[in-house]
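Complex record, two chains
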Amino acid sequence: MKPEWREWAAEARTEFPQAHSALLPLLHRVQRAEGWLSGETLADIAELLDLSPQYVQSVASFYSLYFKEPVGKKVVHVCMGLSCMLAGSDELMHQLEEKLGVSQGQTTADGEYTLLEGECLAACDLAPVAQVNLRYHGPVPPEKADTLLREEVSP
Amino acid sequence: MTQARYLLRNQEIEDIDQFEVYRAHGGYDALKKALAEFEPEAVVDLVKRSGLRGRGGAGFPTGVKWGFLPKDGRPRYLVVNSDEAEPGTFKDRELIERNPHQLIEGMIISSFAIQARQAYIYCRGEFLRGYEQLSRAVQEAYAAGFLGDNILDSGFALDIFVYRGAGAYICGEESALLESLEGRRGNPRLKPPFPAVAGLYGMPTIVNNVETIANVPPIVTLGAEWYTSMGTEKSPGLKIMSVSGKVNRPGNYEIPLATPLRALIDDYAGGMQPGRSVKCVIPGGSSVPLLMPDQLDTPLDYESVLQAGSMLGSGGCIVLDDTVCIVKASHRLVKFYREESCGKCTPCREGTYWMADVLERVEAGMGDEGDLAILMDVADNINGKCFCPLGDASIGFLVSAIRHFRDEFEAHVREHSCPMGEKVYDTANY
């Protein structure tokens, strides 16, 4: 457990009128600092919020944006929604897999990229659209896959 | 189209996401008017008379919903649903990213109307930019005295909290949203009781969509008669349609309700891409049945679209052209519901899984004669038998696709291949 987590937990408890609402914000904050949420981290968070580790585990596992294993510095979500499919997202995903040498769901060996399928990202006007660390990029036609991978990211 | 915008004002006014710019263009004047000239019940009455209906998809009259709150002295909450994730829908994202103050102004007026002292925005986890914009805008509203204690010396007090989800379509369902807001898994709750009676933290709660609340400031400023002068008697006012797919100008368009679907596609969205024709249209988000080319004159209001066999829903309009394989499109949509099913009830959890499985093999040319019957049987066992609306949403497009394009499904099975060819992507578009 990192010393600052205690402080963050206290802040999360008071950010919303009911302490119950603290869990998701705290998970977000710790993941932002750590990159992902290990079983140990989840147990620490449980302790900080007086919850059982099983409860925190079950909540964290429900939501797709909490990572239960290490991810790359750049997490790339390619939208696989119907509108993006019509604009070539399957081919975009294929190009990214080729260039990174991984399949969707995987992280490159150098720890730089994690490639993930995104469910409709609510940006069909930008189809085919992708997010890098939750920042939108689009349209990204398949032949621009390289450009997407070169995008600068802020932490 | 160059008509005035009342919701997507960002399309006319640059930087209206900035507090000063929003103020300079009359922002928060509706709030001043509401607090100075109206009693809370009068605002509820105004919204009732405007005929504003919920823009998240259900189309339930907003003022009537507000009227369901029990008058028993318990605290009440307003919760704004910004968990937009219905495939084809992207209007709330634009509103919160580009015009966040209008939502906040609408929330303050609406909270005054229902006498809530706390209001929440549940923002989709993927909307990081939207979350940042909302958080900043809320701070600016506090600094200007539009939030906090004794707002504009009216005696009314309100706090707004911005809460980030973490990736789950189901949290757009209002009771699942409330679960998530309370720090739990986003499983829907049994209804009744409805949120108006027992919602957030067990208290009476109104859950409204972003676009719904963004309508409130212009209604206060311009009046109920202004709103009812547009659209039809039962579907008055404005609706944002999100248009995507094979059109020249995909984007959000603010239309008077009852604008024909054809005008939306041709006049607003710039028509079909060169050489393409309409195969079918999903008019209201991925959960609704498709409309055929001979239905393009359907007016886009709740009643007319329903009469045409579909629903206006969230206004997410996906235009499919003649090169699109209907099996592949069906598979993509059903797969979405399979991924997003929360797993709580069996028909949805298992049904979406099996439909996606069968569709995948049919599309791959490995289907057999009985597969269509299996799909219809599974859909029938989902229809009306799920805990929440997600299950029914998963079959709307599929069942209508089988009905209108049975030949194409059968050809996949008979010829063991996709008659449309695999290619749906054309580099010429870029």
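Note: The first strand of chain A starts at residue 74 and ends at 79.
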